[in-house]
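Support case: user asked for a sample of complex input and structure output to validate their parser. Sending the pair below.
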Amino acid sequence: MICDEAVSALDVSVKAQIVNLLQDLQAELGLALLFISHDLGIVEHMTHRVAVMYLGRIVEQGTACNLFAAPRHPYTQALLSAAPGQAKGHRRIVLKGDVPSPVNPPAGCHFHTRCRHAFDRCRSEAPVLEDKGGGHQAACHLQNLPD
Ligand code: SF4
């Protein structure tokens, strides 16, 4: 079942009812849910595996448990640092600039115009998803992210 922003714009009590209903359906019918959301709290609560997208590309994927505890892509790190209740000791990362147009995305790594770790290779070569350890795959030229 595809749930595209299924609980966005709902008040808290209705949101909780829908979440419980989806979890009951999943358990009773053995359904796989593809849960698409900007609400990271709900994503962490609802999902087993998570894929993070930026400008139409998956930039990181892994188990929800590992991804929320130790994000391996600079965009995921910034996303989690800005989400209410998700910081968990990670310091706030403020991204500069606006999201580029998806119609005309930047060359190379789509995230390079806003990434604080960008270097020359990022501007010309698109990174592919690679194993970064801990059950993660991330699309980043850096093997280890600096602090
Ligand atoms: S490939 Fe470069 S620009 Fe893209 S996320 Fe990694 S360091 Fe940042």
